[in-house]
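Predict both folds.
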Amino acid sequence: MAKIISDVVCPFCGTLCDDLEVKVSDDGKEILEVYNACVIGTEKFLHSQAKDRLTVPMKQDEEGNWNEVSVDDAVEYTAQMLCNAKKPLMYGWSSTNCEAQSKGHEIAELVGGVVDNTATVCHGTTLIAVQDVGVPSCTLGEVKNRADRIVFWGCNPAHAHPRHMSRYSIFPRGFFTGKGHKARKMVVVDPRSTDTAKMADLHMQIEQGRDYELLSALRVAIRGNPLPETVAGIPRETIQDVAETLKSGRFVVIFFGMGVTQSLSKNHNIDIAIALTRDLNDYTKAAIMPMRGHYNVTGSGQVLGWQFGYPFCVDLSRGFARYNPGDSTSNDLLRRGEVDAVFVLGSDPGAHFPISSVKKIAQLPSVCVEPHYTPTTAVCKLHMPVAFVGVEEGGCAYRMDNVPIETRKVVEPPEGMLSDEEFLERVLERVKEIKGVA
């Protein structure tokens, strides 16, 4: 008889919804149905059951043909590749658990590698800004229970975080927000008319790349000082209306995404967004929070932080941790030809990096650790399949508000399939043998 597992955590996005129910077969090997998840979260669970899923390691020979190899061979190739490299890049880490991240960092320290996560191409600028000026933030629980003014700046949660608005930010009825969305005002700042923007009380259709100017104008308007007729394509009256709307709220939360972090001014956009949040705290309660993408990219920054003191692009090639965004970040290293091996886990740079970086990966000794085929597989020399974290393996993950949540195992992985942590543990043991470390 089928059974239902409740309180399952969704391993898709940084919202980490923890109210899923998964119906599994009585032998615990097959997922039959998924309840409460969004369409993307549901697909993540069901995709783990794909019939064409890779279950054995595959290695590319000199002619470019793929051949099956044993797990022992995959461990040996990975360990030798990392030990023989002078400066290996170990990239990804955002779609796995904190336990595996910690194990991978230990390997990186032994081989003198560079550890970088997907923040390098999304919210790395946020992390730099937080280091510059700090951050007045809160938890998603506080948003649900207290916030009555919500700003979505440069993000589209209707598509990227499908249950964010229904669970935390707009629609739920919290302890002090008993009327749900009827008691909230929603402002969206986006150059496009997105599905999120269409739901807003006010859509500020900003000119592309002029976020810094509009944020500055809002700071001016909040203080009641005069403004020019238009700023970043937004009329003065609209800016003043938004400023008054935010000041009149009991609890303001600004959520921002890659439309801010990767537009002109980069981390300085976030600096001034945080300054705007602090200004609002002179009139009401205000907080700001990044909309993190991968379900455990926040955890990757946390683990790197407590192991090495820095949240991404950590260079260990000299035997101690160095951090210099723009120098020790993945794309900069690849494009300058400064790394001689690439290890990818929990990400897909083959699909998201510039073609110049992808070409460099294709030319180097490389390993891709991933449950299924990805564009990165095509440019790597070895593909090591592993269990799905959050589906076939549990472990700790950090929600976008930096709250740690324990993910749950709901089904067994295919027979003989290692988890990320188990594979990294075996690689670590072999690296220690090669390096002669006790």
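Second protein follows, with its predicted structure tokens after the sequence.
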Amino acid sequence: MSGSLLVAGTTSDAGKSVVTAGICRWLARQGVRVAPFKAQNMSLNSFVTADGAEIGRAQAMQAQAARVEPEAAMNPVLLKPGADGRSQVVLLGKAVAEVGALDYRERKPVLLERALECLADLRSRYEVVVCEGAGSPAEINLRDRDIANMGLATAAKLPVVVVGDIDRGGVFAAMYGTLALLSAEDQALVAGWFVNKFRGDARLLAPGLEMLRELTGRPVLGTLPMLSGLWLDAEDSLDLTTVVDRGSVRGPVGADVLRVAVVRFPRLSNFTDLDALAQEPGVLVRWATRAEELADADLVVLPGTRATVADLAWLRERGLEPVLKARAAAGRPVLGVCGGYQMLGQVIEDQVESKAGTVEGLGLLPTRVLFGREKVLARPVGEAFGERVEGYEIHHGVVTVEGGEPFLDGCRVGSVRGTTWHGALENDGFRRALLREVAEQAGRAFVPAPDTSFAAAREERLDRLGDLIEEHADTDALWKLIEGGAPAHLPFVPPGAPRATETDR
């Protein structure tokens, strides 16, 4: 077979990424060579491919669902919002510009060409390409320069399915309204609906699904139940509600629970670094924005950020600096990752990201940071606690270590550790060794589970998404759309207006 499909959504966080990943896993299990694609992604949660390209983590997750290696063509345009209302444009895995919204708008025709080239390339190498939209296809103020939703669909002649989140309410109105706002040309490509995050009695929903089909001429291709505990790589801060207050399903192996507080920076990036900690039995992970929320933590984590200097200023305004310094003085564990690591040093020299010049760091590690214009993208491999560790790096700030003990290309002084490596905690042996040391320093009788595998847990979650599509979607209809494109529909006409008949056509 060969073909493509675009998964759009009535809103952000409707479930486009999850449905796209589910379709990819379902097809991969059928022996189909399938690839994900998102023309334009706005996210601070990114990943480095094997050949050193930066793409959205959601597309890397979808590639894993498809059982293929992620690559730059799967997410040709990535926007990374900064602290000044501007965004960094990453094109085919490399940062090329910093732009405002209006500046970026002028670049879109060229970016659409590049996106279509990447989509054509993927379609030449894979049997199926499952595309994901961005935001909503009914953002009519942006339609004339759209490159991710109906602009892409019309240019590439893709059938479109639209996902709606029934859990937030108003799903029928959102679906009907989405179609009503589209042009006739765009409407012709919309082939059906997915109702997502459903919980309740399906018998009560059935009449609404039939009325939606009658009103729009498009069937509901699946009612997907709410799934808990997926913890998949999120795109933006809207998804943080699914990673807040995470605790393991199983209880602790030892006598104690280990408490981890993660500072929730305004420009938080790569927050999925903490997922592996959160799935450990007996580890409770919470986001923190106030000093008192750090008080009972056995480990405080300063995660990555797109705006190190601005978020350091925010940290100080929130009164977190004295707490962190008191923890260090008392030998209580602190871990900094990437931007969080940069904050822990003595001095930050930044004429690139914030253009703030010389900024005093927290002074907890003997390091200096110099921001360079070229972004560092790497897939390092090393060792810590006698365990092999693989990670990835995405940063402009280059850290010079002037003392302390080595720690994953970073350093450690007492209970304070810092590294530029994302993804290190996904290495099971390293994670368990770190937790054992944190528990010892915190005086906790906590013992990491000896058999926890983060890779296996992620695979199980992706299989659950494949099951979601296989068990709750009209897979025969999906096959037909992928192979044959959108079927011919009656023009969409709002209620009360005369509808076309066979003789009218």
